[in-house]
Design goal:
Number of domains: 1
Oligomer: single chain
Structural class: alpha/beta
Strand order of the largest sheet: 2-1-3-4
Order of helices and strands: EHEHEHEH
Helix content: 40-55%
Radius of gyration: 13 Å
Number of helices: 4
Distance between the termini: 15 Å
Shape: globular
Length: about 100
């Protein structure tokens, strides 16, 4: 199953990229095919809108969403969850996906 990783980035140390990478590694080890929107790194020329457009494009190619802690405080992750739920995708915390695979 292809799972999009959603969580907060803006105003966090290192844009929370280490948490995205760890979640991606854990999902891979559990047998999923994770999509990490943070894998592209940070481009100082990009706006928030550039990042969310790319993220939503990647989200649409997935079957489900794994949520990182604090996602509900993120404008981007909240939008991604809204879109995923509207498309009837399974949206669960990362821990739930890992428990299901165990």
């Amino acid at each position: 199953m292809k799972i999009y990783v959603a969580g907060p980035m803006t105003n966090l140390p290192e844009y929370n990229l280490p948490a995205f990478a760890l979640a991606t590694d854990r999902l891979k080890m559990a047998g999923y095919r994770p999509v990490n929107p943070g894998r592209h790194g940070v481009n100082p020329a990009y706006t928030w809108q550039d990042y969310i457009r790319r993220g939503l494009t990647e989200l649409l190619q997935c079957e489900a969403v794994a949520l990182l802690p604090g996602w509900e405080n993120s404008q981007g992750a909240t939008l991604e969850v809204h879109v995923a739920k509207a498309l009837k995708m399974d949206v669960e915390p990362l821990s739930t996906w890992l428990e299901r695979a165990a």
